[in-house]
Specification:
Blueprint: H1 4-30, H2 36-56, H3 66-90, H4 96-103, H5 106-118, H6 124-145, H7 150-174, H8 178-181, H9 183-205, H10 215-243, H11 245-249, H12 254-267, H13 273-290
């Protein structure tokens, strides 16, 4: 039997790698002329029954006040609906590998939001890490502008940044709720809220009939729901429970690296040497920013 920590490491790596496949699946689906709202709907609708079943067998760990449920609804809407919507929109305009690198700055946004709204101190090392991270983003952004259409790169990058910002807001705001609900129950409830928000969005907009797409779109939506949403969401929750948030964060840099590799294999995307340099700077900055002050 595997030692507990080894199991946590395996769960962390597997969850991160599966999550990183989402951007590639979205880009593959866009090749079949599916709109953003419909694709997001397929991801969530295929996920919903699984989350409902798991939620039914995982009640909150303690008595939860009504206002806490209201906060959960808010953070589920922000973190899993808005963040996903901005992300899917942004992937229309930029490469999957660039999407993951920009999205990867969310830990620095967590630090900044916590500093502004919760008055949490930021160490000098973390400030340097934030600066280094955004320097890496700037290197990649300038490089991509030199080889792609300016307007599409800017729009796509802004949308992905908004995705990172909303997800970071969710992490900051929901941190105090997870101990009350438990990781599994909170994840299930938040995802159910997100699914409901996407269904409402689709019902109001109704861009295309649900049966008007090519079969590949539905298969990709199903794969995205199971392998890039449901399974990794719980793997990551269990990994954090075993390793702790700080140790888990060490494996976060695998996400962009995995996406770059998958985007190359399945989409034929490539990065310039300058962009690889920027990717290295971003990863180094995140690692530095996430280090806690010892002593």
């Amino acid at each position: 039997m595997l030692p507990k920590k080894s199991l946590g490491v395996i769960l962390a790596i597997t969850g991160i790698l599966l999550f990183s496949s989402k951007a590639v699946m979205v880009k593959l689906a866009y090749q079949y002329e599916v709109d953003t709202v419909s694709l997001l709907l397929f991801r969530m609708v295929f996920s919903l029954p699984i989350y409902v079943v798991i939620a039914a067998f995982n009640r909150p760990m303690e008595k939860v006040a009504g206002k806490d449920y209201m906060w959960l609804i808010l953070f589920g809407f922000i973190g899993y609906y808005l963040a996903s919507y901005f992300d899917f929109l942004g992937l229309i305009y930029i490469k999957a590998s660039l999407e993951r690198l920009i999205l990867f700055i969310y830990p620095t946004l967590v630090l900044l939001i916590s500093f502004v709204f919760l008055r949490k101190k930021i160490t000098r090392k973390q400030v340097i890490g934030v600066v280094v991270t955004y320097l890496g983003v700037l290197i990649i952004f300038v490089s991509e502008l030199s080889i792609s259409d300016d307007s599409s790169v800017i729009l796509g990058s802004v949308l992905i940044f908004l995705s990172a910002l909303t997800y970071a807001s969710y992490l900051v705001g929901s941190g105090w709720l997870i101990p009350k609900f438990g990781a599994t129950a909170f994840t299930s409830y938040a995802m159910i809220v997100s699914c409901m928000a996407v269904i409402l969005h689709y019902s109001l907009q109704r861009p295309v009939g649900l049966l008007d797409f090519q079969p590949e779109v539905y298969w990709i939506g199903l794969a995205m729901a199971i392998f890039a949403t449901v399974i990794p969401s719980y793997l990551v929750s269990f990994a954090i429970k075993i390793l702790g948030a700080n140790d888990f964060s060490i494996f976060g840099s695998l996400g962009p690296i995995s996406t770059i590799g998958l985007a190359y294999l399945f989409l034929g995307e490539t990065l310039t040497w300058t962009q690889f340099l920027g990717a290295g700077v971003i990863i180094g900055g995140i690692v530095l920013a996430e280090k806690k002050k010892k002593g």
